[in-house]
Structures are given as structure tokens and as C-alpha cells.
Amino acid sequence: MLATLLSATLVALDGRVIRVEVDVAPGLPGFTIVGLGDASIREARERVRGALRNAGFVHPPRRITVNLAPADVPKTGPAADLAIAVGILIGSEQFTARGDRVALIGEVSLGGDVRAVPGLLPMVAALARHGVRRVVVPAAATQEARLVREIESVPVATLAEAVDALRARRRAPPARPARVELAATAAGDGDASRLPGPAVAGFGLQPGIPDLAEVRGQVEARRALEVALAGGHGLLLIGPPGTGKTMLARTIPGLLPPLADEDALGATIIASASGEGPIRGLIRRPPFRAPHHTSSYAAMVGGGRSISPGEVTRADNGVLFLDELAEFSRDVLEALRQPLEDGRVTIVRAGGRAATMPARFQLVAATNPCPCGHHGDADGSCVCARGVAEAYVGRISGPLRDRVDLWVGMPRVPPRVLVAGPEPEASAVVATRIAAARSRQLARQGRRLNARAGGRSLRAIARLTSTTAGRLAALAEHEQLSGRGTDRLLRVARTIADLESADAVAIEHLEEAARWRAPARRPLTALAV
Questions:
Q1: Residues 6+ apart with CB under 8 A from 386
Q2: What residue ranges define each of the domains in the chain, with the CATH number in brackets?
Q3: Handedness of CA 441, 442, 443, 447 (dihedral sign)
Q4: At CA 87, angle to CA 124 and CA 12, rounded to 5?
Q5: Cis (ω within 30 of 0) for the bond into 258?
Q6: Confidence of residue 523 (pLDDT cuts 50, 70, 90)
Q7: Per-residue pLDDT tens digits for 308-341
Q8: 386 burial via Cβ count (<10 Å: 0-12, 13-18, 19+)
Q9: C-alpha dihedral over 310, 313, 315, 317, to 10 degrees?
Q10: What does the alpha-carbon distance between residue 190 and residue 286 come to, in Å, rounded to a whole number?
Q11: pTM here?
């Protein structure tokens, strides 16, 4: 007997509806799965066989053929396990299911339990767009599935419960009211520049996030971080070990306002596809990703046989922090150029398979001035040979440098400042200013931060006079800036003006922004001195 059910699979960040066709026919016992499945799909035979037996059902001693259609769509992961197991039961006439349109998603264990799978949210959304009105999902992922309004999610914990749910119509428990309409929203359409207004009430520090008040001294670096976060600009911190570079960057999650609905939806889809569960609602906190400097090219930009998202996509709508920047592989660093400019990354595989994933992240990086880390120290403790420090920082290529808006040196802080210096501002105070500056930008330029402004819109929001335009030209010539670099200088100046609630960019804003551009006339290692 032939049984046909619906399930779904994940391709990059998108859910794809698949038809699970199970044919239980007379003949020599066998179990074959076809339809371009990966290793986890092929291994479903053993999981389903054990689940049926241990859940009290019979694994029929017949010829079982499972086809996952369409045949040209690669299928990955164990999401179709539950549909395959139920299809075998229907095909072997162990029970009769209702005729309503229903889908099943979930991994089955050898004991008959139904487990959550990565990417449940985009898969349920794909089923809703396909017209399915009822889906059986793992009980552990009920809240994630119910983020999709247009489809009824039926939670089950075991294979036996899934069979009961299909035998008779059961209504799911009422969902919580804070659900978001998802079916009409494409995964990854969220813009990292679209963020809420200045209301930051309730967005307190989470455990493990240091407060900005813990970073004593480093007034210039603290100011640069505030400007960078207010406008979404790239930031690079250069200094010897122990000067607070990493600690300063670790305060970022406590300085950013919560994500708006559209951006929170995009962040939640990416987290679901990346297996960062359990997901109990929309993710409001902007992502903060900090991969190790040994991360590979594929880990950074995404890839693999199933085209899974990389760190640049997981940081979408948030911050990508690269500590020890100069230690990263050159290929990895150069791969950041396209997403920094375009806000997306496209991965192409053999056979014409391609996936475009969002990557609108803000780059924050830190590096030592030389391999030993002590170049420029007053005690002369650097042990690097002549020219080594310049070559070390020179691993950061010119095109990538041009895409970083603020370059800040972090020299050692004198002990007297650490012990008896003025009390620094706390994260809550700075976060309020950052949120207020972002709110002005979003209201002024169509929900985009200054880092994403360009062309005529940039000149329009800057409101340059003939005097300030002349000063901008002089600064660009003095710093030997490219056209892109000049625009980035102006964007930073516009953010500084927003922090001061100024309607137009003034000369002092341009000069402060120029002070943080990558120096063209002196080595970058001089920043750490």
C-alpha cells in the first residue's frame, strides 16, 4: 500500500516542502530511501526500524521503498524521520489516518521519542506558505513552531502520540498572544540597520556581560566604541595585551538596543537554522559572535554540502567581533569584503546550487601591534625584529582597511588612573545615548543607520555648507582617502553629530571622524604607542 505525507527540509536558511511517499509492497524484506538524501537521511532506516519496534508497533517484513520528492532538492537532517515512520504504519495498514492536509516534522529515537530538529521555524513557515494548516512537531519545539500564526502546531513527544494525533482531530492548546506573522516574510530579509528607538527599559545586562564602567581609562577607545555602535560603523582596536581591548568589546551586548520585530524575526530564523535552540520566542537581543582566529573560510562565510550559515550570517543584525585580527587567515579576512559592502553572502555549489544569505553585520576587531604584543612599550620589551611589527599589522589588506571606519589605539593605562582615576560611565548611560542617536537616524533616513547611507542620501543628511564641504575635501586629501574612505569619514561625522543632536555636520565633527581613519602617512603600529 502507498502512503503519502508531507514534511520539510532545510536548504541554507529556507525551508522546503517535501513529499514523503512510502510504498509497502510484498516481496523480500528491504528498506530503501531515495530522493537525494544525505547520510543522516540514509541512517533514518535504522532509527525508524528501532522506533517502530520499541514504540509497540510492527516493522513489516516487506519491501519498503521511501521516495522523498522532489528528487532534485537535496534533503538533509532527520526532519523527515517522523513522516517516514508514520508512512510505514499507514502503508502496512496498522492504522488509518484522517484525510485532512497535515505535515510531520521531527527526528525519532530508537525508543520511539520525537526530538527537535534544527531549522524547525523556517520549515514550518514553508509548510504554511504551501497551504498546510496542521503540522505535527516535537513537543520540545512547540514554542518555536507556534511563532507561525497561519498553521496549527500539534506537539507530540512520542511516535505513539503522533499516531493518536492523526487518528482523530485534536486542537492544539491556545498559543501565547505574542506571536508574529511569519508566512509572508522571507528568511533573511531583515536589515541590520533597522532597529528600534531609544526605549531600552528592561534591556539590562545579562550574566557574563561586563559593564562599561569596568573599563577604566581608555577615554578615546570608549568614545570610539560609542560612535561606532551609534552608527553601525566598523571599529578596530590596536594595542598591547592587557589594555582592555577584549573587555571593551565584550561590553557591546549591553550597549545595543533590542531588535525590532522584523530584525528579531530574521535573527530567530538564523538561530533556528543554525541549531541554536531551544527557541522559546523571537530573539530580541542583537547577536554577538566572536569566532576564534583559527576559524576556517567555510566556518566564517558558510558552506558545506548542505550550505549551512557561517559566522557572518549568524552575526546578521548584530556584531561580529574578531579578536586577534592579524592572526586570522588571509583568505578568511578577504572573504569579509563582500558582505561588509553588500550585506549578504552568496555561496555556489556544483550543479548550479546557490544560496544567498544575509550578512548585515557590524565588524568590531582587535589586534596586537606585533607578534609579541609589546611594540611601542616604553620599557622596550618588544622582542620582534625590525619590520616585523609593520608586516604583522600589514596582514590586514588595504581594501579591508578601507572598509573599517574607526581605527583606535589603546596604549597602556597608567596605574594611578586604574586605581584612583575618575569613575567611568556605566553601560546603561551610554546605551541610552546610543539608542537615542539610532532613533534619530531611523526617523530621518528610512530606517537605516548612517553606516548604510550612501550617494545622494549621504550628502543630503550631512547638510554640508560650502565651508564644511571644503574642510571635508581638505581632510580627504591630507589623509589620502579613496572615494569610499571619504564617504565613510562623512558617515562617521554624521553619527557624531547625531550623538550631539545636531542637524548638520560641523567642522569639529569632521575633524573628530578624520582622527579615527586608518593613517596613510604613518604605520598602523603607531596607533598603539
A1: none
A2: 2-167 (3.30.230.10), 212-528 (3.40.50.300)
A3: positive
A4: 35
A5: no
A6: low
A7: 899 999 999 999 999 999 999 999 999 999 999 9
A8: exposed
A9: -170
A10: 12
A11: 0.88
Contact between residue 405 and residue 515 where contact means Cβ atoms under 8 Å apart: no
> Given pLDDT bands bounded at 50, 70 and 90, which one contains residue 198?
very low
Alpha-carbon gap, residue 410 to 512, rounded angstroms: 17
Whole-number Cα distances in Å, 126 to 23, 120, 129, 273, 335: 25, 10, 5, 13, 30
Q: What is the pLDDT of residues 209-263, one digit of tens each?
A: 999 999 988 999 999 999 999 999 999 999 999 899 999 999 999 999 999 889 9
Which pLDDT band, with edges at 50, 70 and 90, does 481 fall under? confident
Please answer whether residues 498 and 230 qualify as being in contact, where contact means their C-beta atoms are separated by less than 8 angstroms. Answer: yes
The CA distance from 23 to 67, in Å, is 8
Identify the residue whose cell numbers are 596607533.
527
Element (H, E) at 265: helix 261-273
The whole-angstrom separation of Cα 273 and Cα 205 is 26
Q: Cβ(36)–Cβ(70) under 8 Å?
A: no
